[in-house]
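Before going further, learn to read the protein records used in this course. Taken together, the tokens spell out the fold as the letters spell out the chain. A record is reproduced here so that you can trace the correspondence yourselves:

***
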Amino acid sequence: MPVSEVPRILKRAEQYVKQTKFKEALALYDQAIRLEPKNPEGWSQRAGAKIEMERYAEAVTDCDQALLLNPNHSDAWARKALALSQLEQFVPALAAAIRATTLNANDATAWYVKGICLEETGKSEEAEIAYAKSLELEILLDIKAEKDRVGR
């Protein structure tokens, strides 16, 4: 199968994740990574599936691989932050969340994880700011989704 098929494979895998068909999704992510191992998107998306499956340590490993390939991959940083926070490694999770929100200030999940990590490390006031930013972004995303749904 040619490398040009990787985007289609990743899209199909993402659909399987949404349907909670993780075995199928992982098989496709593995295929995409075999075809194009230097594409950070395959590693990052596979990490997302592993987070959904509560395989957090494996997700961190996949995020690290994605970040070796592209140190500015904001989704990989956000997923790493989420996985580390689930492993209760709040200090490195906070560092990853800060990097994620620096690279993509509109990532509501990264802001939320940042809030959790700040709270867990005793920085309650900063946590409230991060939570507020996350909520603001979620509201904006909901408004956009509603506009898209009704056709503007």
The radius of gyration is 16 Å. Residues 8-150 form a domain with the Serine Threonine Protein Phosphatase 5, Tetratricopeptide repeat fold (CATH 1.25.40.10). The first helix runs from residue 6 to 18. The chain has one domain: 8-150.
